[in-house]
Amino acid sequence: MENRMKIEFAAMAQNEAFARSAAAAFVACMDPTIEELTEIKTGVSEAVSNSIIHGYKEDSSGTVELECQIREGGKVVIVVRDHGVGIEDVDKAREPMFTTGRTEERSGMGFTVMESFMDRLEVESRAGEGTTVTMTKQLDLSDGI
């Protein structure tokens, strides 16, 4: 069993809720727990928000791509990609409290939040070319699904 979907939308703040809902609706066929669904929605929200705020500096002329896959055994893979400014130092960006935004407006916890809700987080980026965030979540299929 493998299912997948891919959508692309404008890098606008109001589309973050759309992306979160689209990912949740896609994985709903796996009958996830409320906790699993909330974790997926939160991870997607953080990744999409980072793309919009940091990848495009809130310039809505860019696009964000969201890909979701359901793999054998209940593994969910979510990819959020932008073609924005990229991240010069991914390791530094993954440190808690680090932000490229104004510190009075940003907590610098986006990657930390994603890591805490997902089983695996990978970040690939090149300055001037964009960023790809890949999140993996293993759903509990103990109910026989």
TrEMBL record:
InterPro entries referenced in this protein's UniProt entry, alphabetically: Anti-sigma-factor_SerPK, Anti-sigma_F, HATPase_C_sf, HATPase_dom
Catalysed conversion reaction: L-seryl-[protein] + ATP = O-phospho-L-seryl-[protein] + ADP + H(+); L-threonyl-[protein] + ATP = O-phospho-L-threonyl-[protein] + ADP + H(+)
One annotated GO molecular function: sigma factor antagonist activity
Domain (Histidine kinase/HSP90-like ATPase): residue spans on this chain: 35-141
Gene3D superfamilies in the record: Histidine kinase-like ATPase, C-terminal domain
Listed GO biological process terms: asexual sporulation; negative regulation of sporulation resulting in formation of a cellular spore; sporulation resulting in formation of a cellular spore
Keywords: ATP-binding, Kinase, Nucleotide-binding, Serine/threonine-protein kinase, Sporulation, Transferase
EC number: 2.7.11.1
UniProt keyword Cytoplasm, yes or no: no
Pfam families cross-referenced by the UniProt entry: HATPase_c_2
Function: Binds to sigma F and blocks its ability to form an RNA polymerase holoenzyme (E-sigma F). Phosphorylates SpoIIAA on a serine residue. This phosphorylation may enable SpoIIAA to act as an anti-anti-sigma factor that counteracts SpoIIAB and thus releases sigma F from inhibition.
Similarity comment: Belongs to the anti-sigma-factor family.
Family matches, as NCBIfam families: spIIAB
Protein name: Anti-sigma F factor
Organism: Hominibacterium faecale
